[in-house]
UniProtKB/TrEMBL annotation:
UniProt keyword list: Calcium, Calcium channel, Calcium transport, Ion channel, Ion transport, Membrane, Metal-binding, Repeat, Transmembrane, Transmembrane helix, Transport, Voltage-gated channel
Transmembrane segments: 21-39, 59-87, 108-136, 209-233
Domain Voltage-dependent calcium channel alpha-1 subunit IQ: 368-402
InterPro entries on file: GPHH_dom, Ion_trans_dom, VDCC_a1su_IQ, VDCC_alpha-1_subunit, VDCCAlpha1, Volt_channel_dom_sf
PANTHER family: VOLTAGE-DEPENDENT CALCIUM CHANNEL TYPE A SUBUNIT ALPHA-1, VOLTAGE-DEPENDENT CALCIUM CHANNEL TYPE D SUBUNIT ALPHA-1
Topology term for the membrane: Multi-pass membrane protein
Protein name listed in UniProt: Voltage-dependent calcium channel alpha-1 subunit IQ domain-containing protein
Length: 431
């Protein structure tokens, strides 16, 4: 954030001291980004670091910033022959990483990325429309003479295919397309080019210019441009309407919440923390904060997550179990048979998957005696049910005991009353 603010503080005719202060701040931020790059490289190593696109972007920013500093302050100080300060502008992209921590921004970014899959078809339709109209424009208005005081000049004409595309692109933006249409019509009485066969004609304008430009502008303004908006809105509605769809933002949320329970990034957490972790993750990947603790334990019983001997659960095994349960990938029937079928599918599709990773996410067959998270929480539920049953039995016994004691007290009171009546019998008879 501070780096972005500093980039926006530059203005024209600024004092030298002010410029030097900005340059020093540029060096400070470059040093911070370079230190971040070195620390991440040491933590993730080369292959894992560059497998993340955001890390590749950070690497380009660091290299560009270093080139900027070396060229500006060391190689050619004080020269303006080549300006490479635009490398600093890439740092603004880091602001996207900060804003993407919010759930709403992540959803919008994911929608924008998913929309790119359908945009090539819209771009192909636009290219076809421009191609057709460019060829028609060359045939109808390519013979008009180029005059500087008209809309058809050396920079704006239909004499070549490339120039026709430029004119159509300008018309699609709405910049002076009426003037171009008027210059191509008979009302402007445009002259014919001396190199054309129609040089002897009085005018090369055509009434066809009116339907030509009107139809093109209507198609571009009210159909083609709205197609982009329709594609993005359709993807946004599809991705936000059904929250059961898993996306990259769910993975980011899982990594962020996992880091709270695993601050040292060991890739494992205690099995007692799994329930709290999954309750803090929103559906469809997690259980949600409104999920009762007992219900979360019941869901964990159906997950075949292996439990290490030290009582911890691995990152990959937990994430794979959540995705498998959410998408219902071979979760029915015999669990051993389903695991074996899923292992075969993974080997067939991802042939380079390490055997250690495969055994970590899917326990191999013949490991019934191994303790899993599901078995642990099943034991926890059984103990909880037994405690609740025992508590109900004790409460029932207390109620029965209280009932007997109440009945005995009533009998004693009745006997005392009868004895009192017996003692008062002579007086009652005399009365």
């Amino acid at each position: 954030m501070i780096n972005t603010v500093v980039l926006a503080m530059k203005y024209n005719k600024q004092p030298d001291n002010y410029s030097k202060a900005l340059d020093y701040l540029n060096i400070v931020f470059t040093a911070i980004f370079a230190l971040e790059f070195l620390l991440k490289m040491a933590a993730f190593h080369f292959r894992n670091y560059f497998s993340d696109p955001s890390n590749c972007c950070d690497f380009i920013i660091v290299v560009g910033s270093l080139i900027d500093i070396l060229y500006t302050d060391i190689i050619a100080p004080g020269t303006n022959v080549i300006s490479i300060n635009f490398f600093r502008l890439f740092r603004v992209m880091r602001l996207v990483k900060v804003l993407s921590r919010g759930e709403g921004i992540r959803t919008l970014l994911w929608t924008f990325i998913k929309s790119f899959q359908a945009l090539p078809y819209v771009a192909l339709l636009i290219a076809m429309l421009f191609f057709i109209y460019a060829v028609i424009g060359m045939q109808m208005f390519g013979k008009i003479a180029l005059e500087e005081n008209t809309a058809i000049n050396i920079n704006n004409n239909f004499q070549t295919f490339f120039n026709s595309l430029l004119v159509l692109f300008r018309s699609a933006t709405g910049e002076g397309w009426q003037e171009i249409m008027y210059a191509c019509g008979p009302s402007a009485n445009p002259k014919c080019d001396t190199r054309s066969r129609s040089f002897n004609n009085e005018s090369c304008g055509s009434y066809f210019a009116i339907p030509y430009f009107l139809s093109f502008y209507i198609l571009c303004s009210f159909l083609i441009i709205n197609l982009f908006v329709a594609v993005i809105m359709d993807n946004f509605d599809y991705l936000t309407r059904d929250w059961s769809i898993l996306g990259p933002h769910h993975l980011d949320e899982f990594v962020r919440l996992w880091s709270e329970y695993d601050p040292e990034a060991k890739g494992r957490i205690k099995h007692l923390e799994v329930v709290n972790l999954l309750r803090s993750i929103t559906p469809p990947l997690g259980f949600g904060k409104f999920c009762p603790h007992r219900t979360a334990c019941k869901k964990l019983v159906s997950m075949n997550m292996p439990l290490n001997q030290d009582g911890t659960v691995m990152f990959n095994a937990t994430l794979f179990a959540l995705i498998r349960t959410s998408l219902k990938i071979k979760t029915d029937g015999n669990i051993d048979q389903a695991n074996e079928e899923l292992r075969a599918v993974i080997r067939k599709i991802w042939k380079r998957t390490p055997q250690k990773l495969l055994d970590q996410i899917i326990p191999p067959p013949g490991s019934e005696d191994d303790v899993t998270v599901g078995k642990f929480y099943a034991t926890f539920l059984i103990q909880d049910y037994f405690r609740r049953f025992k508590k109900r039995k004790e409460q029932a016994a207390k109620q029965i005991q209280l009932g007997f004691s109440g009945a005995s007290k009533n009998s004693v009171a009745l006997q005392a009353g009868l004895r009192q009546l017996h003692d008062l019998g002579p007086e009652i008879r005399r009365a």
